Amino acid sequence: MAVRTIKVDYLARVEGEGAFKVTVRDGKVQKAELVIFEPPRFFESFLRGRQFSEAPDITARICGICPVAYQMSSVHAMEMALGIKVEGPLRDLRRLLYCGEWIESHVLHIYMLHAPDFLGYQGAIDMAADHGDAVKRGLQLKKIGNEIMELLGGREIHPINVRVGGFYKVPKKRDFAALTERLKWARDAALETLRWVSTFDFPERSRDYEFVSLRHPSEYPFNEGHIVSNRGLDTDAAHYDEHFEEIHVEHSTALHSRHKGAGNYLVGPLARYNLNFDRLSPLAQQAARGVGMGTTCTNPYRSIQVRAVETIYACDEALRIIENYQEPDHPFVPAEPRAGIGMGATEAPRGLIWHRYRIEADGKIAEARIVPPTSQNQPSIEEDLREYVGGWLDLPDEELKHRCEQTIRNYDPCISCSVHFLRLDIDRG
Amino acid sequence: MTGAAARVLVIGVGNPDRGDDGVGCAVATRLEAMGLPGVAVAHMNGEITALIERMADESIVYLVDACQSGALPGKVRRIDAAREALPPESPAASTHGLGLAQAVELARTLGQLPPTCVLYAIEGAQFEVGAALSPVVERACAEVARRLRDELTTTALGKGVQHA
After folding, report:
1. Closest approach of chain A CAs to the CA of B89, in angstroms?
2. Which residue, A166, A274, A343, A413, could crosslink A332 as a Cys pair with Cβ 3.0–4.6 Å?
3. B137 lies in a domain?
4. Shortest Cα distance from B114 to chain A (angstroms)?
């Protein structure tokens, strides 16, 4: 039996592990299984018994790449439970924080992780030898995302300035002066990024996904909106549980999510783009059209283009927020503990995150549930692999493995909420 | 060194919530407490671009990180990264994880690696979520902090003058 294993470990970050196994029998793909590990499950139990006010700092530690989406989902859920509403400049500042996170995360994925696949390199290091200017542009662009996070979040990773009801400290208008100029450069660099990735060769693939994302009456979704799908779903965070369920599958300790009565679904950039193209800024829409993209996209390999469009939007939206910013009278809306249940759903760079909490009258967290994007996408990733691997079986193992990895990378599985160490087994029987 | 900018940067790399992966940051915390003149200390999660960015304008950088190589837990290795390439982390088999070795090699390719770049790698025993450092790694942590103090107060700061 031909089973090959590649183990990935040396001086690596150990924030998540994953393994992937394809079983081939009689020239047909029998099984494609992705095994991931999920720290959010640990955090669910860690949160119980802690004060509601501790949730933002604790949940920010779930992921080094998308802490904002985790902490903001917890904050929105707590605010629902406590009956407070955050609006005006405080809400705008929250959106600005998302802009920073999306720029950081998308640019990291585009330049360091996904582009080498399309250009035929082993990784970013090889690619940098031939495409040094592009890699430097990516590093500069990502840095501007870091700067937003630092200004608003208090530091680049695991932001600590966010609290239930708002912020501990808000910036003054003048604090944004230097950032504005740099964001203008970033917006141009994001436009250049889209042009660059649009020159790549994309495998011709298309799937009939059920796309699920937030949708807001007027905004491209970050932190608020209904949960909708292209197959007629229209609900909200409070009723998420009625429509989606998490199930155990034999091959993975991570839970898989399913749309009840409908099956697998997809969250993330492709879903947001398909459901919210009309909510992108005019510049982002124009840029997408300029490289030949339509208002919908069902090729998962083109998710790299969609990330570039969303990066343009994040720069554009950040500039809009900064231009209109007026310092609020108070950095937060006071929140008094009371017994209640609250749910929050926001858009992490890699897709919808849903949180639910029950808190006691003294403000202690009694129950916590966190559904990360990658566990929602895991069944779709496996389905992509099952469907596509069949067409590549004539390739040698190494090349086949690379195609599988590229396919998994389409989803930008989170560095800590899912795959880091990836072991690949291809069993050809 | 009288109030001027730090000449040496020590970066502790890792995730303190993942058992022995937190040893880099634990060493950094010890060094911070020593308050060595001319030495700045940073804690980072190892995300590749932030690491490259942080090292970009520095002349002397010391990196401290946990590793998994099959050696005995607690084993400490000192690698002169400016002179020798770090063993790769099989990038082809990783979907998302880019580690410290790749950050160093990418910085080298882009011509942004500090002229002095030394890595202390400490073999971890376990990387469980929420776990503390293993006793053997805790001992290695104290050893590396001591060795770094000695190296920084003698060799590195002496060398730093040449780069000034």
Report:
1. 6
2. A166
3. yes
4. 16
